[in-house]
Amino acid sequence: MVSPFLSPGPVTKEDDLASLHLRRDLSLPIILTTQATSAEDEGYAEGVVTNTRFGSFPHSTIIGAPWGSQIRASKVDTGSRGWKGKDTANAKKRKADALTEANGGATAPPVLKDAIAASSGFVHVLQPTPESWTTSLPHRTQVVYTPDYSYILHRIRARPGSRLIEAGSGSGSFTHAAARAVFNGYPDRRVENDADSEPSAADAQCFGQVFTFEFHEERHKKVKAEMAEHGLDTIVHATHRDVYRDGFLLDDEDSPGKKSPRANAVFLDLPAPWEALPHLTRSEQESVPSVLDPLSATSICTFSPCIEQAQKTISALRRFDWLDVEMVEVQHKRIDIRREYTGHQYEGMRGVNAFAADVDEAIARLREVEQRAESFHAGTSEDGKLAKSVQAQQDAGKLPFNGGKLVHRTELELKTHSAYLVFAVLPRAWTEEDEAAAQSKWSKHVKITSNVPKSQRQLKKEAKQRARSQNKSDAKVANDEETENGGQ
């Protein structure tokens, strides 16, 4: 199955996962289908309909549209959906079951009514991404939001072809982002020219994969079901396990033993990350391989809400020979930049502050009002001037793009989760045999030459150093002679 997160295609299709973009930071994930699969979707003459605050949207108007299209709301025919009771629904269900049995078990698909566009309301249909999924996913645990996981994936060097361990699947937010970061192909694909060929173990190692572990059984089942629904089950391998006790080795289908995931990136979202660190070493015990890739360095990140957790994790990392230990706290802020139009000159326009910009402008307006009052009581008319001022405001029409005052402020509502991120690197193992192999491989490409001619700059520098050292030695000899003569 091709994942809509990775290869969505040019247009929407039946049974695709789509994201309805309602407004900024608000999207609604839906499965596009025209046939009702549950009681909640029944009752519409247009088929399955998604209702939002911006109107009703039959899926028949969305399927086949290019990604990013604007979808207009429709006038839907609810039929008896609004007033039918429970007994009526059960009676119709028994009648439908009787008709199905009479037709030999075959159910004829209902004829859908063409949707009629409404006068207002629209949404945009977007392909699913880890960012949109993070803002709309069902929360089972605290979510790792986009500002955090984007920085984490960058620091642990997750890239196409990486093999990443995640401990603590949770709601699956980081899992989707990690799957996209390591994706460089589907491991279950066969070579197009040879459909009968089986992929070798070496070919399987070339594809990026995510190995996610979850202690809670219900959360594990839901994450595994989501990966299958989203077409990521061949990239993400979900395992139900207590990593504190059992570690990160994988069950081998071909043998009763365990096999290593050969990971080169690790992310631990655990209450006590230091208890899982003993399983993340390069030392191999009897018949127990290391979970890390022996041919590359491994980067790790731990996600801890409390500073005490970060301190214990750092102590454990140093105890297990991790290097470049660093703690980071991501304080992501989003700046709202806009222009404020304040003053009487913008009066009558939308989105402005129609008050005096300063004292002088307020006094000028008061004088203008007093002058109009005096003119009215004196019997003189200034209709011509008033008409000209109204016409000037109408001619202005739009706010000037470079007018007003440019201001900025920090947005208050921002979805994020404060935590301390601890990063470290474990270098690859390097033995004497590796050193000898590297020396034999590269020594023939390195030319070692002696008596290399020196540049004029280097010769002048050495001459200055010799003169300076000679002056120091002469001064020392002179001081010694003066000391001897003074003593005599």
Overall description:
A hairpin with a 2-residue loop joins β3 and β4. By secondary structure, the protein is of the alpha/beta class. It folds into three domains: about 15-130, no CATH class; about 130-190 and about 205-330, Rossmann fold (3-Layer(aba) Sandwich), CATH 3.40.50.150; about 335-410, no CATH class. It is about 30% helix and about 20% strand. It has helices spanning about 85-100, 130-135, 145-155, 175-180, 200-205, 215-230, 245, 305-320, 360-380, 385-395, 430-440, 455-485; strands at about 15-25, 25-30, 50, 55-60, 70-75, 115-125, 165, 210-215, 235-240, 250, 260, 265-270, 300-305, 325-330, 335-340, 405-410, 420-425. It is built from twelve helices and 17 strands. The strands form five sheets. A seven-stranded mixed beta sheet has the order 9-8-7-12-13-17-14, sandwiched between helices. Strands 2-1-6-5 form a four-stranded antiparallel beta sheet, with helices on one face. Strands 3-4 form a two-stranded antiparallel sheet. Mean pLDDT is about 80; it is low at about 80-85 and about 190-195. It holds the Pfam family GCD14. It is found in: Nucleus. Keywords: Methyltransferase, Nucleus, S-adenosyl-L-methionine, Transferase, tRNA processing. This is tRNA (adenine(58)-N(1))-methyltransferase catalytic subunit TRM61. Its main location: nucleus.
